[in-house]
Automatic annotation (TrEMBL):
SUPFAM superfamilies: PRTase-like (SSF53271). This is Phosphoribosyltransferase. Gene3D superfamilies: 3.40.50.2020, PRTase-like. Residues 15-176 form the Phosphoribosyltransferase domain.
Amino acid sequence: MFIDRKDAGEQLSINLKKFKDENPIVLAIPRGGIITAYETIKKFKFEWDLIIPRKISLPYNKEVAIGAVSLDGTYLLDERYIDMLNISKEYIQNEMFQQIDEIKKKLNKYKGNENFPDVKNKTVIIIDDGIATGFTIQAAIKSIKKHDAKKIILAIPIAPQNTISMLEKIVDEVICLFIPYDFYAVGSYYENFEQTTDEEIFNVINELKKYSCNK
């Protein structure tokens, strides 16, 4: 159990010290991931940036993901589900365009540009506040690979065993502090898991500019 995202991030940073000599870049996933990544970036003065994958939802149930997309258009689709529900290619394409547009808006709001992180030949540490199915983050991982990262590390406080097993196959290393046998929602392992506000994100980003070459 973690007190909040800050506490989870402090615990996670202990496990990320070993990458200090590799001069990695930390890619935080807002909203909560930037709070979780804060201590690692600040403590080790790591280069950092943001990455925002977005889910592609069912037409009539926005909570259910049938795919995911990243900033550069890299996507992942649940083809079996799409075929079973007879979802049109037009809908999926339109939804992808909408989600990429939303990613760009958020990046411009948070960091002032919509550039893809410079990951070429670098060790990349992706940090989020927790993962459930891992479906959305796969789009981010796939896009980072396309941009020729040297190594990809996924660092998270909490995730279920089956998700960890799946993600371990597509990254170089997964660091997860707590892998419960019976998994519930990510938020159930935090005492405080209130939604991170834009103000908190802006405060953290302004603070991190002191510690990072991303300015």
